[in-house]
């Protein structure tokens, strides 16, 4: 039979030291909310270890926001309410009081919402240690360079106890093995010891760490990769965690055949996918849920956000692609801005200083220089000259410009939408088009040129010497 485990994510604290109104579990690192990490890693651990589980987050400070986020993104995560932040033991009491099935799980795993670098392998190691040594409870510990602020581990003959920084004697403060805040316990053991915890300490808080006793069948499990246990308590640590996530992500991509030339200044969010053979230049930022194909080049300074870029495409320097789909073998930029809902078909080309928005460009379309293409559909193999503008907005509403396939649209022309141009049309340079054109039509809409011999003299002004 499957073993069962109740997972509690502590997310009720105020996070005062962050200095922002946003509740700490919802702060963003590597394109994800901090609380996403413990939830996802706990799930992975349970699936790998064949455990039947239920995840519950204890929320308190600004709980409407945290609960709302969880309800929309993690339908399978339950929440309970800690009314007042009276300490970590009080948070676990709230869990058992409100999550009625909590006591039925054989084991309880406790994680903090603010430790996004803990991975499922850490959870597995802790779990195996508990089972193989037949213990009642384990805490993950590490050696801290600067143990200030952490609970210190006091190893006894049999078990161990934890003394919080504020309560530690000078001698105890020298101990550098510290508590990470990650625990697995037999649920019976936790429930029994939880009852007895009081708030007789410097903080007048109910410390969960008091469930560990020197005479009990419990052990600290020391991990050597201390970096994985960093908690986000201040803006410095948020940056530290972000950089570590970035390092981990790029390390993984490199193992899968993605090339970076200076990964210390290249940024890839956690959920981004990149195919083998792709080259990512320095100062690139790949964000959100972007999916980059194989053999793609993303050149320096480009930002790709929540977009799909297909195989063999080149994004030239300093281009921005936002919530769009760029097909195979396309060239974009340099200095292009691809705004949301743009679809660029295979083998198309978008050149420098081109902006698109809600635009569908079919196969082989060229918009090579200095243009705005918004609310438009452009047919296969149509060539758009330099300085083209869709006049899509009348001050109140947006209108569509449709251009058929195989057209030639001369430079410096504008389309006043709504307007529809058929297939194989030719628009002369400098035209302002506001009437539909049938297939094969030619349109010219500009004033006629007059030349007046010698008259230039009158208009050319010479400066006095
Ligand atoms: C805690 C541990 C400490 C450990 C450190 C590791 C205790 C008493 N101390 O201290 O031994 O070294 O983590 O980072 O547990 N929370 C609630 N309700 C509360 C209080 C806290 O949900 O009433 C949540 C917080 O949101 C946070 C977590 O519990 O996610 C830890 O609380 P925090 O105040 O950060 O504890 P530390 O002082 O860091
Ligand atoms: Ca903390």
Structural class: alpha/beta
CATH class term of the largest domain? Alpha Beta
- Could you describe the largest sheet, including whether it forms a barrel? 23 strands, parallel
Rg calculated over all Cα atoms = 31 Å
With helices defined by DSSP (H or I, 4 residues minimum), what is the helix count? Answer: 8
- In percent terms, what proportion of residues is strand? 25-35%
Number of separate structural domains: 2
* Measured distance between first and last alpha carbons: 101 Å
- What value does the average pLDDT take? 97
Looking at CATH, the homologous superfamily of the largest domain is: Spore Coat Polysaccharide Biosynthesis Protein SpsA, Chain A
* Low-confidence segments: none
Could you estimate the helical fraction of the residues in percent? 10-25%
CATH architect. name of the largest domain: Alpha-Beta Complex
Number of strands: 37
Hetero groups in this structure are: uridine-diphosphate-N-acetylglucosamine, calcium ion
- State the CATH topology of the largest domain: Spore Coat Polysaccharide Biosynthesis Protein SpsA, Chain A
Shape: elongated
